[in-house]
Amino acid sequence: MPEEPRFDTVAKAESTPDTPQPFAELGMKEDEYDRVRDILGRRPTSAELAIYSVMWSEHCSYKSSKVHLRQFGEKAPESDALLVGMGENAGVVDVGDGYAVTFKIESHNHPSYVEPHQGAATGVGGIVRDILTMGARPVAVMDALRFGPADAPDTRRVLPGVVSGISFYGNCLGLPNIGGEIGFDAGYAGNPLVNALCVGVMRHEDIKLAQAPGPGNKVVLFGATTGPDGIGGASVLASATFDEESHAKRPSVQVGDPFLEKLLIECSLELFAKDLVVGIQDLGAAGVSCATTELAAGGTGGMRIELDRVPLRDPRLTPEEILMSESQERMMAIVAPDRLDEFMATCAKWDILASVIGEVTDVTPEEAERGGRLVMTWRGETIVDMPPRTASDEGPVYERPYARPAEQDDLQADDAARLERPRTDAELREQALRLLGAPGIADPSWVTSQYDRYVLGNTVLATPHDGGMIRITDEGDRGVALATDGNGRYTRLDPYTGTQLAYAEAYRNVAVTGARPLAVTNCLNFGSPEDPAVMWQFAESTRGLADACRQLGTPVTGGNVSFYNQTGSTAINPTPVIGVLGVIDDVNQRLTSAFGRDLEGARVFLLGETRVELGGSAWADVIHGHLGGLPPRVDLAAEAALGELLADAADQGAVAAAHDLSDGGLVVALAESCLRGGVGCSVELSGDPFVELFSESAARAVVVVRPEAESVFAQLCDRHGVAATAIGSVGGSGLAVRHSDGGFDIPLEELRAVYESALPAIFDAE
Amino acid sequence: MTARVGVVTFPGSLDDRDAARAVRISGAEPVSLWHGDADLKGVDAVVLPGGFSYGDYLRCGAIARFAPIMSELVPAARSGALPVLGICNGFQILCESHLLPGALTRNSSRHFICRDQTLRIEATTTAWTNGYAPGQEVVIPLKSGEGSYVAEAATLDELERDGRIVARYVGTAPNGSQRGIAGITNEHGNVVGLMPHPEHAVEALTGPSVDGLGFFTSLLSHLASGSPVGAGAR
After folding, report:
1. For the CA atoms of A448, A449, A455, A457, what is the dihedral angle to 10 degrees?
2. Are strands B45-48 and B84-87 parallel, antiparallel or unpaired?
3. Whole-angstrom distance, CA of residue B39 vs CA of residue B46
4. A316 phi, psi to nearest 5 deg
5. What is the pLDDT at residue A252?
6. Catalytic residues (chain B) (predicted)?
């Protein structure tokens, strides 16, 4: 009689239906487990349980967010630009001349708290593979980061680690880092946000999809070997709230090898160019489980895998561990048998390990009806026999209860208008400087100078400008601009409006570069979806974004949801980070935020209308430590008009510089533009100088108009219905502010000292 | 006839396409060279581009030194015949290959540094710098984690004495380089190693200046003159 295998098999599962299984430890609810038993008509094998547990985790299945995310499709504006929409690895938009751009932002928050360097590094690696998987050459990255208070001891552990991780991985991959944001708030102390964005460029005909058609086609795993790193990362680490035990989970953060990823990029692009793959998927969260089920689900539905053929870093790994491993730098391709030799030779050229681990199979109509048939063997025994679509597409969907929390009224009633305002010019001056030196506003060079912004040679704009801009080919002048924004304070005060403000700011940051906004990605960072108050924030936030995107005609192309961002029962401020992509026909027409020395004498105009809007402002936070009231009003029509005006003005060369107004209002914007260009400016304010300087009303920007183009500019403002107020001119050795009652001056050197010393004073201190 | 300038791609090279673009903008024809082929394809000069060859594992440039292409390149460069410009990781490879003395070590800040850097060009008779005026200040991006140049005092003295310091950082060296050294040349002046990236200062739109173009146009003047190069401004 043959010896019974020491691992779980389908045969064993059939003969031992009552064996208790650790579904709860794997993060599965009892009803979810029961559904798996229903689908299979027996208990799952431990390998099947591993697959279902990771594929049905919040992180992979979007089970709590799905019902809300549907709005992005249902309310999507008509857009001819959208070539691939939500649901693939990343959305793809047409940018003209036969070129397409794919972009997406994704979180790696929890791993970056546990192990900041590797957590952030592998966050970059993961999003870059998503973009590569679409068939595109990755051309730039950006990062949206949030940390606890800058001077908190743990921030000095987390921030330098995150920055070094992004720097290490992104620089070594040869991708320019062209922008992003950095913010600080006590709520992020135990739960930093690390959101990484990548953008890639391809020709329309080069788009690749995650699918496995054609029975007989080979399933090839290529890239890194599979090791024990990141096991359980998807279901345990990314979907569970931090508690005391998180420190014991250190080994479950993945370890990155950017050199291998660089080779994987070049190798994959060569494979694509030679047309050697019919389907492709990167291995990210849930590793082999995700890649096989999604590829199979996107194809015939049938696939047969010999799990023994997966090359291992550690021969002791069990089949369940192989299925759940999140070892980085791996891809899975579907390859026609007659192209296999050439595929393998190309991998060999790039020193990339490639192994055939299975093949696409046909399914019977009955099997197709059930969701396909994925079979995996181990040591000759069948350990998985399941319908892959039930794991990849038909996971649980929750209508989580949500309710506006009672304290929201109190929060909104606590109006910032009651805060004590500066009464003298000396106080105005002093508070302006305090804002400029606040860690979330001050010069981010301590962080961004660790990132390569030049590599690939097509960076037109990068940090500190409002948006990053990349020329997409060497042959032409076409470019894309990108910006990310998110303000957790606004969103906390009003999730619907706050999310629209984040969107509006990103839209505006693209517009001030001269580009026309085209499409949106988002990374929605929230607390626990099991908390009705958090779920209300999420519902409001998604509704706000979907409505805004519909109104301004920019479809959501994809994104990512990160729940469980909380420490104990305290959630972070809801922080949807919105990325907007725009297109510019001629990058030579781009606008920068710097008031250059060549502009001395040119007039400075304030575009848009300033109201008394201080709720959630940087002023309320930095000067008073206050969060209450309502955020600024959103006027999307005004944002669109401002965007149209700026694009036309850039196109016609009427404007020489443009800078959006956001955190800290006019005074911060003027100081930044002066510092970036190395020249001063003087402004004369007609209204209440405090409101004019510190209010954060949306849909505003400052521009410098070319003297010879003032009449053209005035006509454009008229045509687009944008209020333009001449507030002063470029020149002088500092920021000179005058109002009906007096004024103040701050020399450039003083602005510079405050602005540039803030982060080094904290992070270079021994 | 158009000069043909090879750009070597090692596994992990990153600025190879940028170096090729700079070669093209200067008016020469870039030729891709592959690390695994011991074949220089008859090029007139070679650029070893920036990046992290072989992941910079072991030590920056230490593995690239043994690539098949280097078996052809090193003798030709050592004899003074073949002009070679090593940029950043390329500079590190030239040091590891003993075509240039000294070594590049971790920045004194221990961080990667990306910044627009002002340099003073000193040696202006090399194959790659003859188009600059002695003492000319240029702004070129510096982007590296291991750019601190170190050598024995005797070597540094010799480099100074022989006029083989090609460029120095103006002001304090941001990476802690000894004697502010940003680039050096060999005794023939055909091999130049430079830590900052001149290929990223060849277009006003994408670089801080076009000051870097001079390295590539200098090469063309050198090749056109047919005269041997000499180190230093003696």
Report:
1. 90
2. parallel
3. 12
4. -85, -5
5. 62
6. 88, 197, 199
Q: Does residue A584 contact residue A478 with C-beta atoms inside 8 Å?
A: yes
Query: For residue A473, which of A177, A196, A136, A178 has the smallest C-alpha distance?
Result: A136
Closest of B196, B64, B190 to residue B117, by C-alpha: B196
Positions of A annotated as catalytic residues are 59, 108
- Contact (CB<8Å) B14/A455: yes
Coil/strand/helix, residue B13: strand
Q: How far apart are CA A105 and CA A94, in angstroms?
A: 18
| Alpha-carbon dihedral A658, A664, A667, A673, rounded to 10 degrees | -30
Interface contact A368, partner B, CB < 8 A: no
Nearest one of A454, A676, A588 to B205, comparing CA atoms: A588
A318-368 pLDDT, tens digit per residue, is 899 899 988 899 999 999 999 999 999 999 999 999 999 999 999 999 999
Averages of pLDDT over runs of 10 residues in chain B (234 residues) are 94 95 97 95 97 85 90 96 97 96 95 97 97 98 97 97 98 96 97 98 96 98 76 38
Strands A516-525 and A556-562: parallel
- Spatial neighbors of A636 by CB under 8 A, at least 6 apart, are A500, A504, A548, A551, A552
Query: What is the separation of C-alpha A444 from the centre of its chain, rounded to a whole number of angstroms?
Result: 19
Ramachandran angles phi, psi of A353, nearest 5°: -70, 130
What's the token pair of residue A514? Answer: 């001269």
Q: For chain A, give every domain's residue range.
A: 1-74+208-395
Other CB atoms within a 10 A radius of the CB of residue A366 amount to: 8
Binary contact (B52, A450; C-beta < 8 A)? no
Distance from CA of A537 to the nearest CA of B (A): 39
* Type of residue found at A263: L
Count CB atoms within 10 A of the CB of residue A233.
28
User: Do B144 and B110 form a contact (C-beta atoms < 8 A)?
Assistant: no
Tell me which H or E stretch contains A575. Answer: strand A575-584
Interface of A with B in 722-751 (CB under 8 A): none
Cβ-count burial of A365 within 10 angstroms (0-12 exposed, 13-18 middle, 19+ buried)?
Answer: exposed
B38: Cβ contacts below 8 Å, ≥ 6 apart: B68, B69, B71, B72
ipTM over 0.90: yes
Q: Which of B95, B96, B188, B197 is catalytic?
A: B197
Distance from the B96 Cα atom to the nearest Cα atom in chain A, whole angstroms: 20
CATH number of B4-225: 3.40.50.880
Token pair for B134 = 């002695």
B102 close to A (CB below 8 A): no
Residue labelled with tokens 């064993």: A12
Closest CA to B165 of B210, B101, B211: B101
Q: Which fold has domain A1-74+208-395?
A: Phosphoribosyl-aminoimidazole Synthetase; Chain A, domain 2 (3.90.650)
Q: How far apart are CA A280 and CA A375, in angstroms?
A: 19
User: Comparing C-alpha atoms, which of A238, A326, A253 is closest to residue A58?
Assistant: A238
What b-and-e string marks burial along A616-652, b requiring 16 or more CB atoms within 10 Å of the CB?
Answer: bbbbbbbbbebbbbbbbebbbebbbbbbbbbbbbbbe
Q: Chain A within 8 Å of B145 (Cβ-Cβ)?
A: yes
C-alpha gyration radius of chain B: 16
CB pair distance less than 8 Å for B11 and A452: no
Summarize pLDDT for A243-294 with one digit per residue, the tens.
444 333 435 677 889 999 999 999 999 999 999 999 999 998 889 999 999 9
Does B59 contact chain A (CB < 8 Å)? no
Q: How many CA atoms lie within 13 A of A104 on its CB side?
A: 31
- Residue in B206, B209, B211 to test binding to A, most A beta-carbons within 10 Å: B206
